[in-house]
């Protein structure tokens, strides 16, 4: 049975809202939002449409609309429905994982830098991040352990050590488990690592440079050499991670498309530091313009996945 769009459009409101298109089996084909529902829906049944949109329209057996109080409310409802129903003609993010974090507890005298897949409600420490991928987290943790020798073992392992492990032997841990470093010195190194993860590596570099010069004046050459190595490693890190955004938080989106191929990349910048990138290849079921693609992607990226939204 052919969908009678004229009869349908005669009764549609011009208010903002969300529309759902169904096929003959009652399955959702497409979900959209509109500032003016009647005007938007009428555009599907007149004028020149691309081949994919024509294919969608040919399968429509029914359309249901939900009137909302505002465009913002329509946007939120649209993303909720897309996430729940996953219509074949919508832009869909296949990766629904949340961004990972680094967690530092306040309850342990010698805290580790812990990898966490998602942020949880906890009052016994602080979260650092988010990071664009697990690789970005593990890379950052590896660098902090190499530079500041922060432990990476589980608390249960730490509690039962009687001699240093291999991480100490290869200079990637200061062996707090067997008392080779004081709690105060370990906390100092941990705070430096945390400051670097927060994008304050230049401040840490200045502090370590001052400490190196003081150690040299006091003829503590071994300590001065250790601090010199940390300063050199931090300067290498700054060259890798510097992005000219000051000290702010931002997400940068880039889109490249051609017939049959689409990629959208997201760069995550926190505290002026590039944490890494994540790449997405959503399906463009209706051959939308690049502007429409990016708009749909960004709204689904934040609203559909409940991600934190940076200042820019």
Which key terms come to mind for this protein?
9 strands; 19% strand; GIY-YIG endonuclease; 3-stranded antiparallel β-sheet; 312 residues; alpha+beta
Structure characterization notes:
With 312 residues, this protein is an alpha+beta fold. The protein has 3 domains: 5-85, GIY-YIG endonuclease (3-Layer(aba) Sandwich); 101-241, no CATH class; 250-304, no CATH class. It contains 11 helices and 9 strands. The strands form 3 sheets. It has a 3-stranded antiparallel beta sheet. Strands 5-4-6 form a 3-stranded antiparallel beta sheet, with helices on one face. The longest helix is centred in the C-terminal third of the chain and has 21 residues, at 221-241. The model has no long low-confidence stretch (mean pLDDT 86).
Structural class assignment: alpha+beta
**Radius of gyration over C-alpha positions, nearest whole angstrom:** 27 Å
Helices, by number, come to 11
Helix share bin = 40-55%
How many discrete structural domains? 3
Question: Strand tally, please?
Answer: 9
The ordered string of helix (H) and strand (E) elements is HEEHHEHEEEHHHHHHEEEH
Judging from the principal axes of the Cα atoms, what is the shape? Answer: elongated
What summary fits the major beta sheet? 3 strands, antiparallel
Beta-strand residue fraction: 15-25%
Low-confidence stretches: none
> What's the average pLDDT?
86
Strand order of the largest sheet: 2-1-3
The span between the termini is 49 Å
